[in-house]
Amino acid sequence: MSQDKPKASRHRPAAQAESPRARLILDERTRRLAQLDRTGPEAVSDQASSVLLCPVGENLYGLPMIDVASLRPLERLSRTATVPQGGVMGLVADSGRVRQVLDLGHLLGAPATRDADGYLVMLKAHPDFALRLGERPLSVAVAPDPAHPERAQVAGLGDHHAKTLVILSVAALLAADVSVGA
User: Fold this and answer.
1) Which residues contact 52 (CB under 8 A, 6 or more apart)?
2) Which of 128, 91, 132, 90 shows the shortest CA–CA distance to 108?
3) Would you say the pTM of this structure is higher than 0.90?
């Protein structure tokens, strides 16, 4: 014998009054989201930005997170030449797309490497390219140096706290420009 029980509603009541605390939280979120829409230099200079911290030798470089589509370990690389030409190490398949793998160290003037391990940074604006990094990069907050726009200081805690790094311009790197700063 089955008894029909009324089912409990899983929906939130439509007419529920907001508490003053909830209203303050929502107003604060709205204010912060509105600030993110500002694109002027004054909005950027007041806040720390986020970069992918890339150690190359003894130096630290930062790729703006706005340019990074994804990051993954380099598992399989198809070689294109015996000696990397212009930083191109080979090809890699990623999500149905073939990308040219460029060695970031080589693009920055370090000697070419034959290492086929490391990490790949997929680029948003350049879907046919990926940058190879020898060491695992970290996402960190940085505070820009107003006197030197191409430099910043690591703002987050950790091994690299307060160290200076160079902010890279992906467009300049791919154009093989000598000046890689933003």
Assistant:
1) 62, 63, 64, 65, 68, 71, 121, 137, 138, 139
2) 132
3) no
